[in-house]
Amino acid sequence: MNILYVILPVALLLSAGSIAAFIWTVSQGQLDDVDSPPRRILFEGDAPLRTLAVATSPAAPVPPQTGSGPVRS
């Protein structure tokens, strides 16, 4: 029975914190546009793939590699 004196206030604080975070999120406009981010991920990836395809084609020169990788002789 004594555990209720600990668990009940903790549960109330967690629920109040969750409600406060939700109200803050809504008031800041974080949930205004929920449709475009899922669609944006479908269309933003096109340009880098074309650039990658051009850069890896056989006619394109290969840039020299720099860095601290293993030395090949």
Tag the structure with descriptive keywords:
73 residues, mainly alpha, 0% strand
Tally of strands: 0
**Structural class, from helix and strand content?**
mainly alpha
The shape is: elongated
Kindly estimate the percentage of residues that lie in beta strands according to DSSP: under 5%
Radius of gyration: 27 Å
Helix proportion of residues, in percent?
55-70%
Question: Kindly, what is the distance between the CA atoms of the first and last residues, rounded to a whole number of angstroms?
Answer: 75 Å
What's the order of the H and E elements? HHH
Which whole number gives the mean pLDDT?
Answer: 77
Low-confidence stretches: none
Please work out how many helical segments DSSP would assign: 3
**Major beta sheet, specifics?**
none
